[in-house]
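Progress note, sequence design subtask.
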């Protein structure tokens, strides 16, 4: 697999930098910052000179604390319900690693590279498949004869909805999906505050929180029709720390107060509490990103310089980063959400009844491209993020035979 896909919009690794710049609007993508950050921290603690400064800036922590913080995050990700995380390190036998750096890694992470690219690739791919429950079967960087080090991280997350969605066809009346019949997901709830609208730098933003059973939530983000995907995702991340900046669904005015939202009075057969009706599209997205393609975002500019070694805290041999990439996948269905990501660095030396009463009804439709965030509820850590531009098609047999798999 060639690492040719450019990096796409996604929350970054520290608070001020919340999305990756994107030269083109992606049709869809997914990326996990939580699966990149620990590796950058581990590298930063071993770096020197400009590479050390750039990696510290990208991670937002002092290099002296980097390894400890990386291990703490991996511990959190590895023990929280619905989450699994792992780090793997493989080196050639002749690469002497410093014990002080190895002690910063989780236990049982160090393996050996044989120097045979096919044999090493098979072993690395097997690790990726095993650590992601078969979601990602190939490491996003490929070993070469001169590869002396591969450092990788894997992250999987899975949650089931507190209340499942119902499936059926979704036929948007306008927008990019207006000629499509897609796999739609709908549900109705009295919890109007799951929906919110915010005024952001990219315009009005609609956010829907879909709660999972194990402390992992998925937030669907719908911006203005011409809003840039990177801006939508950045604004969504910023709102995680600015809860007072949103107007929840129970306080929205009548009319069209936000993208995709209609609030109106409707006639009903009997007295009813206000309802939130949600319609969205099921999706399954995957992407591979060449992290080295945007080195300034990940603090890798100097680390990619082959003219000199940048990691004396790792080994006495001069090492530089020759490749950095991530493969990620995410699936949003009627029963729940799952996602996986694998990040790797390689190093080389040098969703007509009778009417008598009035009730409030809020409708939200995610029937055009939208973003999503998978969020650890307790810490508000963004585990995965992405953009949906090509929804799953609806098939008649899905409606006949039930909700299907996710």
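Output:
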């Amino acid at each position: 697999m060639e690492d040719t896909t450019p990096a796409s919009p996604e929350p970054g690794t520290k608070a001020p930098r919340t999305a990756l710049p994107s030269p083109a609007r992606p049709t869809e993508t997914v990326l996990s910052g939580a699966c990149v950050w620990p590796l950058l921290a581990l590298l930063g603690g071993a770096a020197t000179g400009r590479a050390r400064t750039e990696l510290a800036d990208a991670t937002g922590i002092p290099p002296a604390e980097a390894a400890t913080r990386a291990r703490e995050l991996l511990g959190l990700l590895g023990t929280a319900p619905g989450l699994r995380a792992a780090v793997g390190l493989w080196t050639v036998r002749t690469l002497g690693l410093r014990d002080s750096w190895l002690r910063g890694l989780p236990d049982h992470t160090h393996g050996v590279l044989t120097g045979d690219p096919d044999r090493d690739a098979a072993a690395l791919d097997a690790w990726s498949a095993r650590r992601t429950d078969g979601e990602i079967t190939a490491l996003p960087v490929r070993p070469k004869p001169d590869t002396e080090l591969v450092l990788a991280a894997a992250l999987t997350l899975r949650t089931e909805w507190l209340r499942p969605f119902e499936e059926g066809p979704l036929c948007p009346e306008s927008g990019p999906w207006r000629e499509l019949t897609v796999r739609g997901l709908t549900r109705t709830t009295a919890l109007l505050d799951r929906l919110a609208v915010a005024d952001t730098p990219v315009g009005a933003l609609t956010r829907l929180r879909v709660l999972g059973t194990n402390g992992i939530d998925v937030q669907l983000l719908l911006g203005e029709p011409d809003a840039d995907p990177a801006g939508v995702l950045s604004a969504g991340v910023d709102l995680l720390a600015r809860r007072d900046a949103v107007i929840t669904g129970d306080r929205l005015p009548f009319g069209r107060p936000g993208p995709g939202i209609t609030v109106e009075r409707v006639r009903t057969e009997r007295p009813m509490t206000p309802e939130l009706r949600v319609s969205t599209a099921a999706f399954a997205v995957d992407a591979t990103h060449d992290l080295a393609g945007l080195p300034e975002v990940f603090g890798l500019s100097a680390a990619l310089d082959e003219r000199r070694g940048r990691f004396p805290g790792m080994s006495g041999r001069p090492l530089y980063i020759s490749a950095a990439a991530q493969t990620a996948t995410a699936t949003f269905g009627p029963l729940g959400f799952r996602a996986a990501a694998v990040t790797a660095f390689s190093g080389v030396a040098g969703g007509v009844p009778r009417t008598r009463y009035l009730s409030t009804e809020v409708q939200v439709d995610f029937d055009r491209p939208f973003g999503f965030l998978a969020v650890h509820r307790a810490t508000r850590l963004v585990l995965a993020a992405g953009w949906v531009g090509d929804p799953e098609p609806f098939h008649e047999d899905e409606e006949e035979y039930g909700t299907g798999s996710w």
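Helices lie at 37-46, 49-59, 63-79, 99-102, 117-131, 229-239, 295-298, 396-401. Work on this subtask will continue into the next period as scheduled.
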